[in-house]
Amino acid sequence: MITKAHAIAYWLLPERAAREAFSREIRMLARQFGAPLFVPHVTIFIAPENSRAPLEVLNEVGAVDIELAIHSIRFSEQFTKTLFVQFEPNSTVQRLGDAIWKAGGTRNRYLIDPHLSLLYAKLSPETKQRLADKIWLPFREVHFT
Questions:
Q1: What pLDDT shows up at residue 3?
Q2: Are 140 and 70 in contact (CB under 8 A)?
Q3: 110: closest CA among 61, 48, 55, 40?
Q4: Number of H helices, E strands in the chain
Q5: How far is CA 123 from CA 33, 77, 117, in A?
Q6: Average pLDDT for residues 105-125, to the nearest whole number?
Q7: pLDDT reading at 4 higher than 90
Q8: What's the rounded Cα separation, in Å, for the pair 108 and 19?
Q9: Is 37 left (phi over 0), alpha (psi -120 to 50) or beta?
Q10: Contact in structure between 100 and 45 (CB atoms under 8 Å)
Q11: How many Å apart are CA 39 and CA 26, to the nearest integer?
Q12: What is the pLDDT of residue 125?
């Protein structure tokens, strides 16, 4: 019998206008490539499923208000980073991840690479480059709560 590992993912969600813009882009790309749909997010921490209850952790950490500057549109070989928005490194985001890590009582720290995926698909490097070159976003900074 094969068992799947489960985890708890803590995400930052973009404010409404940016969330709608990212969602449109994700839907368009998913339709074009037969790829999965997902909620636009920045992963802040991944905890094992047997960690402290997420609601308790989030209540301890408190409200979040973060601004991230867009660095570039990139692509990679990693499926969950097929095509993505790379944000500038941000110490506030890492401090938030560390606060979740400490509040959750988990063993391993999570080093944050602030990015927001736009597409999960298996594509050639040339196709990914073409897509990255075509993406235009109407903002250079994104507000997250």
A1: 59
A2: yes
A3: 48
A4: 4, 6
A5: 9, 9, 15
A6: 89
A7: no
A8: 30
A9: beta
A10: yes
A11: 8
A12: 96
Amino acid, res. 85: V
Q: How high is the mean pLDDT of the chain?
A: 91
Q: Which residue has 């994700």 as its token pair?
A: 26
CA 77 distance to own-chain centroid: 16
Q: CA nearest 114: which of 82, 136, 142, 79?
A: 142
Tens of pLDDT, residues 36-94: 999 999 999 888 888 888 899 999 988 889 999 999 999 999 999 999 999 998 889 98
The token pair that represents 86 in the structure block:
């790379």
- What pLDDT does residue 77 have? 95
Which of left, alpha, beta for 105 (phi over 0: left; psi -120 to 50: alpha)?
left
| Cβ contact 114:68 at 8 Å | yes
Task: Please determine, for residue 1, whether its predicted confidence score (pLDDT) is greater than 80.
Answer: no
Tokens found for residue 62 = 């408190």
Asked if residues 107 and 123 have their Cβ atoms less than 8 Å apart, the reply is no
Q: For residue 42, give every residue at least 6 positions away whose Cβ sits within 8 Å of its Cβ, in sequence order, or none.
A: 11, 12, 14, 68, 87, 93, 114, 115, 116, 144
Cα–Cα distance measured from residue 34 to residue 139, given in angstroms and rounded to the nearest whole number = 27
